[in-house]
Hints:
The complex is a heterodimer of chains A (about 475) and B (about 475). Chain A is of the alpha+beta class. Chain A has three domains: about 290 residues, no CATH class; about 120 residues, no CATH class; about 60 residues, Arc Repressor Mutant, subunit A. Chain A contains 15 helices and 17 strands. In chain A, the strands form four sheets. In chain A, strands 1, 2, 6, 7, 8, 11, 12, 13, 14 and 15 form a ten-stranded mixed β-sheet that branches. The model of chain A has no long low-confidence stretch (mean pLDDT about 90). Chain B is α/β, with parallel strands linked by helices. Chain B has a domain of about 270 residues: Amidase signature (AS) enzymes (Alpha-Beta Complex). In chain B, strand 7, helix 8 and strand 8 form a beta-alpha-beta unit. In chain B, helix 2 runs antiparallel to helix 3, helix 9 crosses helix 11 and helix 9 crosses helix 12. Chain B is globular, with a radius of gyration of 21 Å. The two termini of chain B are about 15 Å apart. The mean pLDDT of chain B is about 95. Chains A and B meet through loops of A and helix 9 of B.
Amino acid sequence: xxxxxxxxxxxxxxxxxxxxxxxxxxxxxxxxxxxxxxxxxxxxxxxxxxxxxxxxxxxxxxxxxxxxxxxxxxxxxxxxxxxxxxxxxxxxxxxxxxxxxxxxxxxxxxxxxxxxxxxxxxxxxxxxxxxxxxxxxxxxxxxxxxxxxxxxxxxxxxxxxxxxxxxxxxxxxxxxxxxxxxxxxxxxxxxxxxxxxxxxxxxxxxxxxxxxxxxxxxxxxxxxxxxxxxxxxxxxxxxxxxxxxxxxxxxxxxxxxxxxxxxxxxxxxxxxxxxxxxxxxxxxxxxxxxxxxxxxxxxxxxxxxxxxxxxxxxxxxxxxxxxxxxxxxxxxxxxxxxxxxxxxxxxxxxxxxxxxxxxxxxxxxxxxxxxxxxxxxxxxxxxxxxxxxxxxxxxxxxxxxxxxxxxxxxxxxxxxxxxxxxxxxxxxxxxxxxxxxxxxxxxxxxxxxxxxxxxxxxxxxxxxxxxxxxxxxxxxxxxxxxxxx
Amino acid sequence: xxxxxxxxxxxxxxxxxxxxxxxxxxxxxxxxxxxxxxxxxxxxxxxxxxxxxxxxxxxxxxxxxxxxxxxxxxxxxxxxxxxxxxxxxxxxxxxxxxxxxxxxxxxxxxxxxxxxxxxxxxxxxxxxxxxxxxxxxxxxxxxxxxxxxxxxxxxxxxxxxxxxxxxxxxxxxxxxxxxxxxxxxxxxxxxxxxxxxxxxxxxxxxxxxxxxxxxxxxxxxxxxxxxxxxxxxxxxxxxxxxxxxxxxxxxxxxxxxxxxxxxxxxxxxxxxxxxxxxxxxxxxxxxxxxxxxxxxxxxxxxxxxxxxxxxxxxxxxxxxxxxxxxxxxxxxxxxxxxxxxxxxxxxxxxxxxxxxxxxxxxxxxxxxxxxxxxxxxxxxxxxxxxxxxxxxxxxxxxxxxxxxxxxxxxxxxxxxxxxxxxxxxxxxxxxxxxxxxxxxxxxxxxxxxxxxxxxxxxxxxxxxxxxxxxxxxxxxxxxxxxxxxx
Lengths: 485, 486
């Protein structure tokens, strides 16, 4: 039987506010336990929550960026359950009426070797507070409670069951990650738990309308784990059904060491959270004026920027999409083009997606940390364009620029000069090289003359080698053709 | 001296007839000698320190009418320097690292804190018999309850242990004990007084207010107590107002709505008599009585006993033995620790309400109970708005009977709930309500127990309510009667 995979994601994005969502306590990762918690976070008797407007502002930014409806009135509700790291005995969240409703996220995804655009619909995004942390190690049979994280603002972003493979789910998660970081509403730090996903996974026979029974895999804090967990879960469910079993609706945890998911609690054990509107917080009313103000302060969004790159720089759609995956890459690209000239847009894009991206990747750093500045790269592009160096030599120069870690604007020229990499375009010098090559390779000359075209390439290769790669390739070809008559 | 009103003491302080320290000492002695069990926490050293500060302020002329006046707080308000217990074993000995906003405001004007006042556990009760620290006695008859949940506050004022007290009212907890102890108390409009630092019972209903001998005293206290607080999101942002500004206004032509539902079955004849007499006194002052109807009154009991326990069940979840307060000594695991801690830490009435609240919020019952109750709550509020189209103020009894005997209803929670019938709907609507002493009934004991008249105003009409109460107190002397016990 052919199976179709159905995936929906719930993502918790930690918002970049200075303080917590319902108290004035600071949010700092890695601080000493319980030093970032005030009486409100500790749920001392008598304390009350006060909503952080910055968290709302970020939710509005996100909602506008995905074309969602911003609810003019949304409601905070209490989700009641007992756990030692949940100080109030309830989490303040939004239940029936969330602040962000609907919206879409579009992204490119590889399918059968081709790149396709995919659009995922969002159900909602709502504001809520994070819980604290239970520390089971180091306490000799006891549990330590760290409430630094308690009250940290989260935006929980929920999709429709729109994804059909782990690859799509990861591509969505990456696009969402890029977007929230782009907007600056989340720092995107997955190691610190600032961006984590729950995946709802089910399978159904291809062609069947009804969804299969789903399992929710909790707390996936890396794209790799997300992909592995979904793939494992899909295999597990298919095997289970094919062996005559049925999938039980449950919450599962992914074990990255064993690379498998395991049951955490079944639907029967599911808690009754006794949601009800939090009487300590009036409904969140968002006036149109607030939405309008946020709208005007929004940065250019990736989609709009992509269209502009195609239109203004004549870039292929694919290039525009890759370059607009992060604000840093896009800004760097535009800076290079600004310095090198608009006609250098395509070469600049090629360099960004090629040597720049692969070097960043290799070193595991972000574009903002690149030792080669946009200005420095633009000079390199100019030197390729004006024939000073070949594209091939340019790669060597680029590597040297990266290592040089210099701030000199003329770094490319300095390195071409000091390493003697300037292209040889002088006809006399080139003729001399060709003459030497022809004299030393009589056999190849014979072969060429007897009609073997391949021999020509061999001679060019020899000449290029003799010039240490510096010969102007076009000129070299012309001259060799002349010489061979 | 201890029989004087706050206003009288204020004048004596101003004229240097007495010092804040002398006043504090006087009341501290009376509290120490008291048998009412009205106080749960004392710190005489800190009290005298505050009195000394007040005297220094008076000496340099930095005074308000409240500077140097002693005051005690219901043990629902958290305080630095005095334990904050909410009348519960769960919080016995708990020390708050911060002061409630209300406590802070009174300190700012230089009032002197005498201590913390006994109350029903987490403000749940109508007789102050649900306190971990024991029942409070009514100074008019020490065999009677003082009412609740602000029973300690009412008894302390009536017994001359403090000239002023704070209370909190969720379903009548200021008005009813004020009535049963023959003093004056006002529950302001919901949102007037900050709830920050008030240990929550039912957040959408809880409202703090002052209790003292007279309307004038209450107006002065409310001036310091009310006001917007950014730390309470349900606090209402309004221009500060002087609640004494209308006290002396003439009330000729005042239209008093008298709801027929407040005079029906269940109202004791002695209470009805005293209330009717008070209404007659108002007619003499130039007011007109208008028959009105508040048809949803009887629904306020089921609605209140769904909403208040629902909110309470969630509000009290934080008392889990993890971070502060009582924790069971022996337990097998986490669930066992929760179970034992909460079983030991909470009293019966609190447990009863947590159970009811948990039930009505449960999946499958929420719509039928909680949502339905919220709908009726809105209808109750509409009842009042229709009534206020025809009258300026609504008057009726505060409670159906005078104070009952200690212990007589402890095994009958429903009887206790029914006693709240006249006060619940005001709380559900968020309206301001007052109780003023208007006479005495005999109960079934042939004793002398106070009767209170309830005044209900429209939203933010506290200054008007206080004016109406003040005019009555200018014409009558019920508020000047003092009990013997203390």
